[in-house]
Each structure stands twice: as structure tokens, then as C-alpha cells.
Design a protein that fits this description.
The structure holds two protein chains of two kinds.
Chain A lengths: L1 H51 L5 H45 L4
Chain B lengths: L2 H96 L4 H17 L4 E6 L1 H8 L2 H12 L4 E6 L6 E5 L6 E5 H20 L5
Parallel strand pairs in B: 1-2
Antiparallel strand pairs in B: 1-3, 3-4
Helix pairs in contact in B: 1-5, 2-4
Classes of the chains: A mainly alpha, B alpha+beta.
């Protein structure tokens, strides 16, 4: 009988140890999930920081500056050409105005 | 079952349970991190797209404003040239008026009176002009009258009134002041500008003119 009691006691102890090991595994699993959530927090914080810091699009800006510069240059060319035409035609136009003003019906 | 077998079974079951718990946790943790990484990548991409779109809209708007300002500048420049053309014409007309003693100007003054009176009703007219031009007209009044009579077919009575503040040219009034014809160079220039601005503008900027 004492042998049987001893064996049963060992079995109970064995069950208890098993429960303990499973508890530890569950705790370890919770820890793994917790760490994963911490990592998620870090990722999201870094992402937020990255989002809030302005990200100038250098390529686009350069392209835009080029377009602006080209348009400005074209415009300067147009102004110069208009000025040249006006300078060339001014005397003729002034003569026409004077002729019109001094042309009286007879 | 022997005690030994039971212990071995407990051992196996426990180990399997532990491995299962850990494997599930590992998979869940991995999935949580992967999802977060995907979400972070999605947010960054979304932000990039948004920035690109905003940047493009801003640039387009800036270029549109630039073009609009350039058009305004060009229009302003052309308007300044048009002003300049009329200003120079005014200067030439002033010089012409300064040389009022010339036969050309004398004929022109007579033409101004003729043109005005022919367009007006009636036969009595007061010609207003400055001192110098009044004198010129006085010396030429008979000839002017004859021309008007020929054109209107009735006798006319012309009276000259000297008004020192009148610009070059003449102003003709009927005696009852109901008719008024401003034929000064200034008024004629304004009229030409109103009538011919578009044409002058085109000629001024015409290529190969």
C-alpha cells in the first residue's frame, strides 16, 4: 500500500510540475506577444515621426524650377520681342495718329 | 497502465502543450509585427502619394499664377507703348501748333472751322481760339466764310472769340450755346484714340510691318 501511495504521490507531483511548465510556457507566450506589441508601438512611433517630418520631393522641385525658369525665359524673350517691334513701329504709328488728328474734312 | 507509462504520457502531453502554446504565440507575435510593418508602409506610401499630389497641385497653381502675371505684364507693357505712341503724337501735334505761323497750320485751322461749322446747324457761329490762333483766323476769316457758304448753301456769320486757355485748335459754339463742337487738337486726339486704339495697337506690335 505504501508503494502505491508513493507512486500516486509521484504522479500528483508530476501533474503539478507539468501544470507549472505549462504556466511558464503561457507566461513566455504572453511575454512574446507583449514584446511584439512593444515592437509595433516602436514601428508606429517611427512611422509617425517619419510622416510628420517634411519630405521635400527634390526631384519634383527641380523639375518645377526648370519649368519655371523655362517659362520665365520664354516670357523675357516675348517681352524683348514685343519691345523691339514697338520700337520699330512706333514712328510709323505716331505718324498715322498725327495724320488722323490733322486730317480735316474738306 | 503502469505509473511509468502514465508519467511518460504526462511528459509527452505537457511538452506538446508547451510547444503548441509557444508556436501559437510566436506566430501571433510575428503576425502582429508584420501587420504593423505593412500598416506603416501603407501609411508612408499614402503620405508620399498625398505629398506628391499636393506638391503637383501647388506647382501647377504657382505656374498658372506665374503665367497670369506674365500675361498681365505683357498687357501692361503693350498698354504703356500705346500710351507712349499717343504721347509722342501729342508732342508732335504740340510742335505743329507751336509753328502756327506756317501755311500748313493756317490751312489746318481753317479746315477745323470749316469741318465744325458744316456739321453744325444754323448760320451764326462763334469760333473760340487762343490769342495766336485767333489772329491767324481773323486774317483768313473771309476765305473760310466763303468755303462754308459754298458747302452749306446759306450765308453764314462767323465771330471770333479769343480765349487764352483754349488748347490748340478751335471750339465752335452756336449763339444760343445749344450747339458746341470741340475741334481742338486735344479733343481730336482723344477721338482718334477712341476710334483707332485697336488698329493702332495692332500696328504697333505687327511683325514685318
Amino acid at each position: 500500500l505504501s508503494t502505491q501511495i508513493e507512486e500516486l504521490t509521484q504522479l500528483v507531483e508530476e501533474e503539478w510540475l507539468a501544470e507549472e511548465r505549462i504556466k511558464q510556457a503561457r507566461s513566455k507566450a504572453e511575454e512574446m506577444i507583449k514584446k511584439a506589441r512593444e515592437e509595433v508601438n516602436t514601428i508606429m512611433l517611427e512611422t509617425q515621426a517619419s510622416l510628420s517630418s517634411t519630405n521635400p520631393q527634390t526631384d519634383r522641385r527641380e523639375e518645377f524650377e526648370e519649368a519655371k525658369s523655362r517659362i520665365t525665359s520664354e516670357h523675357q524673350g516675348k517681352l524683348a520681342s514685343v519691345k523691339k517691334l514697338a520700337e520699330k513701329n512706333l514712328d510709323r504709328v505716331v505718324k498715322i495718329i498725327v495724320e488722323e488728328v490733322t486730317r480735316v474734312e474738306s | 497502465l503502469s505509473v511509468l507509462q502514465i508519467r511518460s504520457h504526462i511528459e509527452k502531453e505537457t511538452e506538446a502543450e508547451i510547444q503548441n502554446i509557444l508556436a501559437k504565440a510566436e506566430a501571433e507575435a510575428k503576425a502582429i509585427v508584420e501587420d504593423a510593418k505593412k500598416e506603416a508602409a501603407r501609411l508612408i506610401e499614402e503620405q508620399k502619394q498625398k505629398q506628391a499630389s499636393e506638391s503637383l497641385a501647388k506647382e501647377r497653381s504657382e505656374l498658372a499664377i506665374l503665367r497670369m502675371n506674365q500675361r498681365a505684364e505683357l498687357t501692361r507693357m503693350k498698354a504703356e507703348w500705346l500710351d507712349r505712341a499717343f504721347e509722342e503724337a501729342k508732342q508732335r501735334l504740340d510742335k505743329l501748333a507751336e509753328n502756327s505761323g506756317s501755311s500748313t497750320y493756317r490751312d489746318f485751322l481753317a479746315g477745323l472751322v470749316f469741318e465744325s461749322t458744316v456739321k453744325m446747324r444754323g448760320s451764326k457761329f462763334t469760333i473760340q481760339a487762343d490769342n495766336r490762333e485767333s489772329e491767324i483766323l481773323k486774317g483768313n476769316l473771309n476765305a473760310i466764310s466763303k468755303r462754308i457758304v459754298q458747302a452749306k448753301g446759306v450765308e453764314v456769320e462767323l465771330q471770333i472769340e479769343t480765349k487764352p486757355d483754349i488748347p490748340p485748335g478751335v471750339i465752335i459754339r452756336s449763339p444760343d450755346e445749344r450747339q458746341y463742337y470741340n475741334n481742338t487738337l486735344e479733343a481730336r486726339l482723344t477721338s482718334v484714340r477712341q476710334r483707332l486704339s485697336g488698329q493702332i495697337y495692332s500696328l504697333l506690335f505687327k511683325e514685318g510691318a
